[in-house]
Input
Amino acid sequence: MLAALLLNANRPVSEDQLIDLLWEDAPPSSARGQLQLRVFELRKLLGREVIVRCASGYLIEVRPGELDLHAFRDGVAKARAAGRSRESVGLLREALDLWHGNGLSGVTDVLARREGPMLEELRMTAREELFDAEIATGRCAHLIGELRRTAGELPFRERLLAQLMTALSRSGRVPDALDVYAEARRRFAAELGIEPGKALRDLHAGILRGGSVPHQKRPSRPAALPAPVRGFTGRARELDLLDEQLGSGEPAADIWVITGIGGVGKTALAVEWACQARERFPDGQLYVDLRGFHADRDPLAPVTVLSQLLRSLGVEPHRIPGELDEQAGLYRSLLSDRRVLLILDNARDAEQVWPLLPPSGTVLVTSRHRLGDLMVSTGARSLRLDVLPAKDSRALLAALLGAGPVAAESFAADELARLCGHLPLALRIAAAKIGANPEPRIAELAKELACQGVLAGLTLDGAAESAVTRAFVASYRTLAPAQRKLFRQLGSVPGAEFTARTVAKVTGTAPEDVLLRLCRLAAASVVEELGGGRFRLHRLLREFALRQYRADEPAPEDTRTRLPV
Output
């Protein structure tokens, strides 16, 4: 528990996340009570009340210099700022001396499995940067023994092999450098069925020619961002927040998880900010739609995504390994000291994201789920999107329809935005319907939506259902059966806001079960948690839930007769 809190130092960790990390699939019925007992025991052991209770769980307060991981990252950042110099060598040696064996050794299997590889990659990247700095300062002969030992531990890490060959050749031991390549080539062929990468082959050729040892070729600079959406408006606070937090100086990747209901504009925000910040990522920008909430297609497997990313980074298709672990190792090696921007769009869960995280740069993950496991294990920050304020909804309509028509039908535009629940996707579909008419009238569509329902009225081109409905269906399908049932029942609960007690009275379910399911629906961005035990359902999700309720549930008695007084 202490390790889980420290990996997310100065940030809250929810009780559900802690229970998952401590017991995974088999938590005891007394799990929450045991958490409280462990906090009590840890406070005694630590000597001061550094673990505090917060609304969603627990938070451990760590001061500057108290956590080795923070000190390590600070030391590496200072070394990078010093370039490949003797000062950099000293700083990196000092930072690496903080390690005493593998990270998280002796900690629960689930936490070590999820976070251990990321910590080990941080450590190995720093060691490789140390070797580069030592070679640059001419200490090649001094390094050979350490490089042989490290390369023997990681025999497929090509950057280490290149450093060992460089150190040997520059120390006058060219035959030994060629032997390292020959042995690596045999090992790659026998165990992976591939040749070493182009950078290692070029290095070998340079040594054979007797010329200077060439530098490793940098991966190609991808520029894979999609075009920003037309008429993007609002979100100034969110864009400023991403700007302010960019470039923390830590060697680890800066990860953001952007969450919200389907159609709220998560992808639009990520792409808009990425396009604005493009020049701040000189090593390239990558984008992948993980299809976590596609209505008709399965989510992409990490092995498929890594193959796509490696091709974007210039790896020839026949040199891409077939196994996930080998792909991930090659991917991290290519990006270990690069400043790249990666957008992982529409992530289904943390398992889909973990293998795709680079060791440095900035990552924007969009998802309808909170991905709490990812935040615990990586220190990712959460950015939740709500629907647009009324003024931004009007601005979006004006950007799509023109300022003149919106000003001429000002009241109707505001009513249309209200009917659409200020959801950007719904507003864009409404604008497309209005713009498709020879004489567009905002008031006519607003009247139509008020009469027949927004979801039914927002279809385009004779489609059976609107894009908003398809987005909601995709979210609905990810829910467990018990959560689906409660969501359907929420469509029959009167009022914009409700409590677990209210819903329990309507559904005839125990309040504690209802509260647990409501929290899970909130984690899936299907309902909104307001605090104080209150929840809210977006007006269009309420309309969708009521439609599902009428289709799937038997005719109920009037729910108002069962509401608490």
Remarks:
- The radius of gyration is 27 Å.
- Residues 109-136 form the longest helix (28 residues).
- The chain is about 55% helix and 10% strand.
- The CA atoms of residues 266 and 530 lie 20 Å apart.
